[in-house]
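Request: When convenient, would you put together a sequence paired with its structure tokens?
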Amino acid sequence: MTKSLNTINKFSILFSIFFIALFGKNFALIDIPYVPGFTLDFILILLLFFTIFLIEKPYSNTVSSKELFILSYFSIFLFYHFITAQTRDINELGQDSLTILYPVIIYFIYKFSNFRIKISKNFIKFFLIVYSIYIILDFTFERSVIIKSFLGIDLTNLNIPSLNLIALKPTEAIFYLSILLFFFTKYSKLKSSFILIFPGICFGLYMSDSRTVLYGSIIYVFLLFVENKENLGFKDLFFLFIGICLSFSFVITDNESDINTQISGENSDVGIRRVRENSATCFVENLLLKRDKENCENSQSGFKSFNHGYFPQTEKQGFVTDATRSVITRFNEIVNLYGSADIFNEIIHNCFQESTSRTNPCDYEALSIYNEFIQIRNTAYEDLCGDNITWRVNLWKKTLYNENSDALNIFFGNGIGYSIPSKLISENQLPLECYTGTQDSIRPLRNAHNTYLTFFYRYGIINLILISYLLFLALIKLYKNKNFSIVVFSLITTSLDPILDSPIVLFTFCFLIFYLLDQNKTEI
């Protein structure tokens, strides 16, 4: 029976990781009827149940006093936060406590499961190629509306359907690709260096699109080279570089209508407000803190509903500038002139139709007023909110310390059961206009867009120091065993794009780090 349960556990873990990597949210976020949580939560509960029967007696032979203390401490601490939370919604509580709950449960499962696996060289080689091609196809399908050609092949006449195969963010997709690349480099004397062209294309596509992927990948490849100097040579890096260069041959259309269609599409995990160019120039420009939005970034243009956004509510919070005041003033002037915002919207909408008729001609005077207002509003937004970096930094600052911070929540945290941006907005610490995206989406942002600051805000500095100490000990061991690069890559990425706040990556990351720490029981 023990052998059968071990087999079930091993199969369930590998099955889950495989399907997350292939289908992302479409697998991980499936609701299980009559059970709280999603697919991965249900799988963990089953694994935990089976693991109970694998524990050997006496328990003191399998669990050290230090391990028992750490597991007990976090379990009790988490239970306290559950009973003192502001909500009784089990899904919200689970989502906010993942960074403690998943590691504790997965460590327990791994500790008592016989998770010895042998990773075949040919298996890794095969899946590195297949998964790379799969990501390239996903990129092509997801952006089929705007991709004109690749490697000189005209794609505009192929009628490629627009669909999202993986349903992973760029950082999540690169995480799973990086795991395959990590194990591929562990074999001595790589004779298939040309294979690295395929993952190189994937890295290039997402490095041009995301600075988080760009910075994290550069550090990751460097650490991978340092970690595997005996196996990984400059020839291998050269083929990886060739793949990155090939990614620049994805030519993006400059057709304004197609770009608007892509940006407004719901079936996408890319940035919904802009499209990045995949050129060598824009790749280099992406390294800079100040992006060249005019030549490398296309935002949605054309008709947008005439409104003043959340500037009035933002001013009531106390965030008032000359620019924000001018938005409200000009909006009221236009409403008084035309009667209402709805009437003005109807007039302007005619100017953005593909063809205007005699019965519904474009009112060019109204169009000029509209364009002027859009410019005023954009200027006010930039003045109040800044760019994407400013957006994150301001959120981080208020998460780290704000007017409502005191010794109690600094040391022991603010608890779980709510969205951090929403709470900061309700406390007038952040302007609503700048963070509407954290409120309006189907799955609004609940964290501080930085896993470490989220952990600090919810659980306090004492627990952050404790978890950081445990990670530090793990990294020392992984460094000695030359298995640290993939873990460092994940820890760097989650500081800019919180992938470890999500079960989609955290599930795999926990099993991966315990697997690497337990290297003496595994074969590669």
Remarks:
- The CA atoms of residues 140 and 147 lie 7 Å apart.
